[in-house]
Amino acid sequence: MSADAVRRILRFWRSSLGLSLFCALFALPSTATALELDELAACLAPDGGMQVSFRQERLVQSVDEMLESSGRLIYEPPSRLVMEQQEPRRERAVIEGDRMSVYGADGSEVATFELASRPGMRSTFNGVRALLAGDAAGLRKAFDVALEGRAADWQMTLAPKDEDTRYHLRRITVDGGECRVAKIDVRMRDGGRRVIHLRTDGAAE
Amino acid sequence: MKESAKTLLRPFAILMVLAVLGAILVTQVPIRADLAILLPERQSEELKLLHRALREGPANRTVMIAIRPEEVSQEESVSFERLATLSRALKTALQETGEFEQVANGSFALRSNALQPFLKHRYHLNPRLDPASFTDEGLGKALDRLLIELRSLGAPVIEEIMAADPTLRTLDVARLWRQSGGPRKEQGVWVGRDGTRAVLLARSKREAFDAKDQTAVVKALDGAIAKVEAEQGSVQTSVSGPSIIALESRQAAESESRRLLLWSVPVVALILLAAFRRPTVLLASAVPLLGGFVAGTATVAVIFGEVLAPTLGFGAILVGVGVDYPLHLFGHRRPADSALATARRIWPSLLLGVATTAIGFLPLVFSSFPGVAQLGVFTIAGLAVAATTSRWLLPWVVQPITLPPAGALWDIIAPLHRGLGRGRVAALLLGAAAIGVVAIQGDGLWQDDLRALSPIPEKTRQTDQALRQDVAATNPRYLLAVEGSDAQAVLARGEALLGPLRRLQEAGVLDGFELAARYLPSANTQSAWLTALPTDGELRQRLSAALQGHPFKPNTFEPFMKDLTAAKDRGALQPDQIESPILRSRLETLMVDTDAGQRGFGFFEGLRDPGQLADAIAMADVPGVRLLDLKAETEALLAGYRDETLTWVGLGATLGLAVLILGLQRPGPVGRVGAAVAVSVLVTVAVLVLVGTALTLFHLLGLMVVAGLGLDYAIFLRSAVEDERRGGGNAGRDGRRSVCVCAATSVSVFAILAGAQIPMLGQLGETVAVGAVLSLISAFVFTAAPGASRNLEPSTSGS
């Protein structure tokens, strides 16, 4: 099979239709019993990479309004997260390991952040990565996980376990329905907040 | 057995005394090991300054490192991502060693601590500080930009600096310092020209040319590489830099000396034992050698105040010719003679040989190459002492031993000697042909690359060159020199060039340039900037106006107003007030404090039209600014060096001939000895040229040694023939033995030297090894008994 064909199939699966079809057929129990993290995670887990559109709102201490930006979020297993921002400016951030590198539209490296010295950011990205990877064990390791609601409409609350992280990051709330994440709401201790809306049916392909 | 123990005592005692003297000298006299030693003193002022700047600047502590995964073959391409991973891992590992004050792999990490120096000096550094940025309108625009930046992916850094720097000038300043002059970059790291390996620069905290310090640095490097290998799988690395080269060449020199000793001592011992069958001879032969070495070192120390390390090495080799003198003493000893009588008998020949050789080295003393001048003094003093020791001290040393007379075995050389005598015409023709070969070469005879004179092993040099190409973006040929009485003068002159250079950049004549004034404005410029800044009151007013319609919380920008007022009050920033190593090191490579005042250097990237550049600089007409063409300067330098070298040779040969005429007095012997030497030297040159060798200074030194050896052989063989004519029978036997033993030792020692990894040692070795063989043959040819040759070639021996 040519690489192209493989890519095409993967793309199909990644698209919302393929993904929900897959989930509906095999993964999610149709009963409305209490939702289990492992089941949810298994259903969230893409087989291959995935990309979704995002719209982010951020609240920082010294500014009175939400700072908006949007673009696409790409997850490349096992551990790479790429944010391709379109607004306000074309930029790309690659999060891998304990490092986030930001590249300008021309591909030049604009900035690099060592996440080790930014526990809040690190924890947020690790959470997002674990969510998108369907990594239940990873989530449990880093957070106290509380899950509410039903399969069609659930809410997950992630409270960091690590002392250092707790000092910066209050909690992460994740809303979703079926096998997709709709919103990630990150609240910082200092009043800062980051809300990421994800949309799988959007601009993809 | 008892007797032999007793005979060893005297030479042993003398050697001990000499060894102690030598040890005292070597520890007390300042010995300078310097790679640029062989550059002539007379070189142009600019080149000298450049070399000094390059030698003393922080560049010397910078180590270049290339890294690539092991498993990939040269042809296969490595993914840039893989290289970036390795590069980052190595950078972290190097930083963790604590040995390096700065490690750069090309990644532009906009970390707040890396921004700190730019934040601190943001109102004193380039780019131009525009007062319009601090008007109501300018501040309003700045706040708009700030809001956009806060929405960008780099926002975390912006959040950290926004209160103090809402106009984000820190980023503009940092960008200017960061964007310039880089090697090729992929995935945010330097990957070298062909993109097959990641390259890094690490500046150590240690002294660049301190052996112990650099050993520690190399150890840290190895440790960091091992750590990367443990994490990332096996890698290939190569490392270079001035300090690494200094260390490697020192190690190479050490291992070469070990190798030379390890092989030559047993070989020479074997030859001497075979010839004389007395171990005492071995020890006794070392006496004039060591005496010569001590005398040479002492004389150089007295005259020059210091000794260059290569002088010691080469001096030891050149004085090695002096081993012939004791050998003559032993070789010529006849059973009936006392050692003193032998010394007296051979003294005229010995004196003639020494005097001629020493005089031949005399012009070296006046060389403008400090290393060469020292070598001349060393050799003359060393040979003189070796000869006088052989004449007056050695007979006493070897008095207790009875040497075996030359065996009848040596008589078989006599007919060979006579036979070779028939080849005089052929030899002269060969000499003439050699002149032809040399003449055809013209200037191609000489090695044009100054680097071939380097004491650096060839492999080390190649590694260095490849790495340099990978990390350098600037043109290595053209260089701007800006002189000034102080740093401010240099900066002001540099500033005057910024306009013309920027226009050239816009016109596509060059891609970029490096100049201190590009980063640090002169004090006058800074003062003008600061004066144009608003006062605290004005700024508050304007900012509050600009904040209307912007969603920032009140009092957010208090730090900004405090900083701006502080910058105004502070006044201009002088270069020596900059503490940040990142800023300092950049300025230090572009501006150097010398005895003759401050020197600024300018480098060019992507220079396409040097002519236009030269015109623009001439048009700008800034005093104290010169565009240097290093290639042209170096070529002129080499031409001068060549001419000077040839002058030495001519002068040395003439002086040597004069001494020969004084010593031998009759034209016949002078002609024969002179011809023997001339033919052997010429044919040696021709052989070297024919095998494709480009001649260097060290070949030339080798040729002077060849001339010295040739003289020695010819003079002693001639006196052997004379002895035979007067004494008849086998009176020439001991003379021939002596010369043959001398030649055997010289050829074997220099042949071992010829295999050296260090180019200049190898060059010296190959020249003398070939030359010594040719000298022996030539000496036989030209000194053969006139009787024998008269029968066959009446025309050539008519004198």
Give your account of this protein's structure.
Chain A is of the alpha+beta class. Helix content of chain A is 29%, strand content 42%. Chain A has an 11-stranded antiparallel β-sheet. In chain A, a hairpin with a 2-residue loop joins strand 4 (91-96) and strand 5. The model of chain A is unreliable at 12-33 (pLDDT under 50). Chain B has 30 helices and 13 strands. In chain B, strand 4 and strand 5 (189-190) form a beta hairpin. Helices cover 65% and strands 8% of the residues of chain B. Chain B is an alpha+beta fold. In chain B, strands 9, 10, 11, 12 and 13 form a 5-stranded antiparallel β-sheet that branches. In chain B, strands 3-6-2-7 form a 4-stranded antiparallel β-sheet, sandwiched between helices. Chain B has a two-stranded parallel ribbon with strand order 1-8. Chain A binds chain B through residues 58, 60-65, 67-69, 83, 85, 87-89, 91-93, 99, 101-103, 108-114, 118, 121, and chain B through 88, 107-111, 147-148, 150-157, 159, 162-163, 185, 188, 551-553, 556.
Key traits:
heterodimer, A: 205 residues, alpha+beta, eleven-stranded antiparallel β-sheet, globular, B: 799 residues, five-stranded antiparallel β-sheet, four-stranded antiparallel β-sheet, 30 helices, elongated
In short:
The complex is a heterodimer of chains A (205) and B (799). With 205 residues, chain A is an alpha+beta fold.
**Radius of gyration of chain A, Cα only, in angstroms?**
17 Å
Query: Order of strands side by side in the largest beta sheet of chain A?
Result: 6-5-4-3-2-1-11-10-9-8-7
The rough form of chain B would be described as elongated
The strand count of chain A comes to 11
How many beta-strand runs of chain B?
13
Major beta sheet summary of chain A? 11 strands, antiparallel
What's the Cα radius of gyration of chain B? 35 Å
Largest interface, counted by CB within 8 Å of the partner chain's CB: A-B, 31 and 25 residues
Termini separation of chain B comes to: 53 Å
Task: State the major sheet of chain B.
Answer: 5 strands, antiparallel
- Mean pLDDT over the residues of chain A: 79
Helical amount among residues of chain B, as a percent range?
A: 55-70%
Strand content of chain A: 35-45%
Fraction of helical residues of chain A: 25-40%
Order of helices and strands of chain A: HHHEEEEEEHHEEHEEE
